Every structure is written in C-alpha cells, then in structure tokens.
Amino acid sequence: MRVGVVTFPGSLDDRDALRAIRLAGGDPVPLWHGTHDLEGVDALVLPGGFSYGDYLRCGAIAAHSPIMSEVVSEAHKGLPVLGICNGFQILVEAGLLPGGLIRNDHGDFICRDQKLRVESTDTAWTSGYEHNQEIVIPLKNGEGGFIADDETLKRIEGENLVAFRYLEVNPNGSANDIAGLRNNTGRIVGLMPHPEHAVEEGFGPDTDVAMKSGTDGLAMFQSVLTQVVSA
Amino acid sequence: MAIIVVEVMPKRELLDPAGKAVLGAFHRSGIEGFHEVRIGKRFELHIEGAVTDAHLEQARTMAADLLSNGVIEDVLDVRVEDSPA
C-alpha cells in the first residue's frame, strides 16, 4: 500500500511520517508541494512543521499550494488523508475540516507527552484502536487552540466528528478539549498531537513498562493500511 | 501612486493571546489606562499605475480567500490609500 507524505517548505516531520508508514508496513511515498502529482497514492499524510514559517496564519499559504488542489479533489472522492499538527492546520485552512486553530490560550509553545481518548474508531485512521481507548503520544505546538463558533461546535459534537479528545490536561485551551477531528465519511482525520513520534520502542513517550517505549501512534498508520486493503 | 489596504482583525468573541501579552507589557510599563489590546493585520497591495475596479474586486476576493480566515477573523476594510512612498 502506497501512502504519500507531502513536503511543504518548512515541513519538519515529513521524514518521521514516512518512517512511521514504513514501520506500520506500508510503502512511503515522498511528495512535493510544488507539483500537481499525487503519484497515485492510496492514502496521504500532511505532516507537521511550520510551512511557510507560519506566515499569515498557520497552514494558510500551504493550503494554497499547487498540490493542494489535487489533495482537496481526491479527498472529496474518498482518498484517506491524515493531517498532523501543521497538517491539521492545513486541512482546516483548506476547508476539509471545520473550525480553526489559534495561538495557545496561555501564549506559550508547549511540548509534552499527551494523553488522549480515541472517540471515533470508524475512520480510515483510527479503526485499529478500541473505542474510548486512552493513548499517549507527543504534542508540540504554539498554535493548537481549537476554536469554532457555537453552531459549528454543536454540529461537531452532534455528528460525532471528534476523533480525539485531550485527557487530564487541555494543553492549549481547545474548545471542548478537542485534540482531533474527522469528517463525515471518516476518510479525513486531523489532530494536533504527533502519532508519528510514537511508533517505535526506544523513541516514543515513557510508559509504566519502560522509558521511551510508547508506540501508541503506530495503530494510526496501521489502520489506514487495513482500510485501503479492504476498500 | 495608490495602494489598496486590507485590514483584518481576529473575531471579537475570540481570545487574542498575543494582544493579552502586549497588554501585560503595558501594565508592567506602568500604563494602566487601557483594559484591552487586540492585534490585527494591515496588508498593503501595491499597484503599478491607477487602481481600477478590477483591482479592488481582486483585492476583496483575496481578502476573503487568503488574507483572512472567516472562521477566526473578520475583514474590516478594503480601501484605496495614497502610497506612502
């Protein structure tokens, strides 16, 4: 299964995402923002980073990149797309997920191992989790505060579009503790925390068992491989 | 020479953490007369020659599509000004 990762100017975690896809058993395909070519991938990751230096608004200029016209049209046709951190911001700016992401309410950049609850498991990227499973993956952002107007928030909750919710600590003032969203079909998922940094023992968050042994992010990349096979 | 100025502000009902940080610096400087600071953006679109209706129309389109995000910001104004230079 070929899973693409788009590199934008200022992407940081593109190689980590490619590595996560490989460790999950997929074939990672690096893609470039300046082309109109998705190279026929079966699924797509928009990685974390600071595309265009977060100029204008996080993800705003990247959302207007050449490749994004293909991403948007293929996403509407059902291509599974995962947006991580800056990738989530790009999905929101591109109108593929609702709401907006603004500066953390406390004003600081925050980096921590974050506990989340997986609230939606009927998506292309979360089917490998148990419903309401609690996971720990790294979080690192300065502008991760999720906001939406009351009507949109009601729709998000009413249609069960919350994919992940922050547990114990709301690290950035996000409305309703929302850490990640899905779209109605479950093909598009975006989240602020970083599953690609918790995919290999020795390099993940600490667990009760051993230091750096957390691999709770791996199931996200495995989920899409199952989806693509069964589709 | 003229420019088109686009002004964008974060929505009134949203917290503006950057503005709040600036207000803190006001207070630390002993300035107590202001109870809120909000930070917005001013874009200057420079044009060779005269500003036409087509320029203004394009500026309004880009103000809505790129320069602002309607979820979190409002376009306050799109107007013609004399070029500062």
Question: Any key phrases for this structure?
Answer:
A: 231 residues, alpha/beta, Rossmann fold, 9-stranded mixed beta sheet, B: alpha+beta, Mth169, Chain: A, 3-stranded antiparallel beta sheet
Number of helices of chain A: 5
Shape of chain A: globular
Q: Rg of chain B to the nearest angstrom?
A: 16 Å
Q: Average pLDDT value of chain A?
A: 96
Overall pLDDT score of chain B: 93
How many domains in all of chain B? 1
Please identify the structural class of chain B as seen in this structure: alpha+beta
CATH homology-level superfamily of chain A: Class I glutamine amidotransferase (GATase) domain
Order of strands, main sheet of chain A, comes to: 2-1-3-4-11-10-9-6-7
What low-confidence regions of chain A span 5 or more consecutive residues with pLDDT below 50?
none
The sequence of SSEs of chain A as H and E is EHEEHEHEEEEHEEEH
CATH topology of chain A: Rossmann fold
User: Mind telling me which CATH architecture of chain B this is?
Assistant: 2-Layer Sandwich
* SSE series of chain B: EHEHE
Q: What fold name goes in the CATH topology slot of chain B?
A: Mth169, Chain: A
Text of the CATH class of chain B: Alpha Beta
Number of strands of chain B: 3
Quickly give the structural class of chain A.
alpha/beta
Largest interface: A-B, 22 and 12 residues
Beta fraction of chain A: 15-25%
